[in-house]
Amino acid sequence: MHGCLKDVGGTIMGHALCICSKGTITINNKRYLLIHRLGEGGFSYVDLVEGLHDGRFYALKRIMCHDKDDRQEAMHEIEMHQLFEHPNILPLCAHAMVEKGSKHEAWLLLPFLKRGTLWQEVEALRDKSIFMPEERILAILHGICRGLQTIHKKGYAHRDLKPTNVLLDDDDQPLLMDLGSMNQARIVVQSSREALRVQDWAAQRCTISYRAPELFTVERECVIDERTDIWSLGCVLYCMMFGEGPYDMIFQKGDSVALAVQNDLTMPENTRYSPALKRLLSSAMVVNPQERPYITDIICQVEDIQPPPSGQDTTRI
Fold it and tell me: What are the residue boundaries of the Protein kinase domain, all occurrences included (predicted)?
């Protein structure tokens, strides 16, 4: 990776980004050493980089933009990050839009959290036949709720909340990430055409096994609001309690998630968790969105649940 890459995004994109030599980049006059690839998706990939000015590690997310619409979507993700400064929302450290031949890449420099995602933590526990203790579940859930509350207060909804979009820091505090699917909290649908547009958008941007029921078949006259996130939050809570999302296996087997989410939630029989935690889960996963609580109600429920006595850190199957 050689040569200077011109900044093409106007004032919002900040300073030009320059590839100074193989293995190093400079953003806003600060140099970063490329370490290795952390992961990649369909249209983006993430590299681990080290700031040569501060010795800290960062995650550099690169979003490939093939056309103007792609660039606008990448800019939207950048703008969503810039809206928030909260301990439970992953901050954006720097950004740039760079030319790569006839195409562009949006570059987002983010903090690197070595512990990884909540999903990785759940998987690690499950592999050891260990369930997460209730006290820890409540602590992580409370942090996720605080992040969501901040998003909802700004008039937005996350729309793609899932365990792989929650990072854990060294203090076990969760940080919400991947804000590219965020949009306005309240969407008023007044025609079949609008309903289909919202439905198609949700199919592309909202992960199927964590998608709220009202986004599978959008009614021609309805209001979609931020309580889609409450459903997804319930799925995340279920995952922490039982080691997988409530609809993960249905999707993996090729059965219809759209049909499954129309039925009342059933949870495994166990006495591992308190009735209050199970009630909290059930309240979040109400099929009718108008009967689903808002995030403030969920936070009140979390704070009302008395944590079990500490001492035993894990519960074995």
Answer: 32-305
